[in-house]
């Protein structure tokens, strides 16, 4: 399945979750509900996927996790913060690099209109 199809469906599902729940909940609630919404739409969704760091010949399993991985191809980083900052984008980009994946979506559910809380990022492998 094309990355654009997966990311478009992910954003659409996030909008549905946000319209039903609104802002102000914990990230874990949005993560669970978004995973459920995507699964009901026929997507494969993994939650809290571990990502190791490879430094030369050393592998570090230090607890980094992808919030959601959709169809093994799109990373979704979920936030529920007052405002997205550059560090949130840097975190998603780091997750993309470490996982070797190309596309990620940063979603901040703590906004009035979800369109203001979505950022799509591409890893220039």
Report a brief summary of the structure.
Helices cover 38% and strands 33% of the residues. It is of the alpha+beta class and 125 residues long. The protein has one domain: tt1808, chain A, CATH 3.90.1570.
Name the features.
125 residues, alpha+beta, tt1808, chain A, five-stranded mixed beta sheet, 5 strands
Query: How many beta strands in the DSSP annotation?
Result: 5
Task: Tell me the β content.
Answer: 25-35%
- CATH class wording: Alpha Beta
Question: What is the averaged pLDDT score?
Answer: 95
Integer-rounded radius of gyration: 14 Å
- How would you spell out the order of helices and strands? HHEEEHEE
* Integer tally of domains: 1
Unreliable stretches covering 5 or more consecutive residues: none
Head-to-tail CA distance between termini: 19 Å
Derived structural class: alpha+beta
Biggest sheet, in brief? 5 strands, mixed
CATH fold description: tt1808, chain A
- What share of the residues lie within helices? 25-40%
Strand order of the largest sheet: 1-2-3-4-5
Instruction: Give the CA-based shape.
Output: globular
CATH architecture: Alpha-Beta Complex
Number of helices: 3
Secondary-structure blueprint:
Blueprint: H1 3-21, H2 27-40, E1 45-55, E2 58-70, E3 74-79, H3 86-99, E4 103-108, E5 118-122
Parallel strand pairs: 3-4
Antiparallel strand pairs: 1-2, 2-3, 4-5
Helix pairs in contact: 1-2
Describe the structure in your own words.
Helices cover 38% and strands 33% of the residues. By secondary structure, it is an alpha+beta fold. The chain has a single domain, classed as tt1808, chain A, CATH 3.90.1570. A five-stranded mixed β-sheet has the order 1-2-3-4-5, with helices on both faces. The radius of gyration is 14 Å and the shape is globular. It starts with a helix and ends with a strand. The model has no long low-confidence stretch (mean pLDDT 95).
């Amino acid at each position: 399945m094309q990355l654009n199809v997966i990311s478009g469906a992910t954003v659409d599902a996030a909008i549905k979750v946000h319209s039903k729940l609104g802002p102000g909940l914990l990230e874990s609630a949005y993560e669970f509900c978004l995973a459920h919404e995507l699964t009901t739409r026929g997507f494969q969704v993994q939650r809290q996927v571990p990502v190791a760091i490879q430094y030369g010949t050393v592998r570090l399993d230090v607890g980094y996790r992808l919030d959601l991985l959709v169809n093994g191809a799109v990373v979704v980083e979920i936030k529920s913060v007052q405002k997205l900052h550059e560090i949130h984008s840097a975190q998603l980009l780091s997750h993309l690099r470490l996982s070797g994946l190309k596309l990620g979506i940063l979603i901040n559910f703590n906004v009035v209109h979800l369109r203001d809380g979505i950022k799509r990022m591409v890893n220039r492998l």
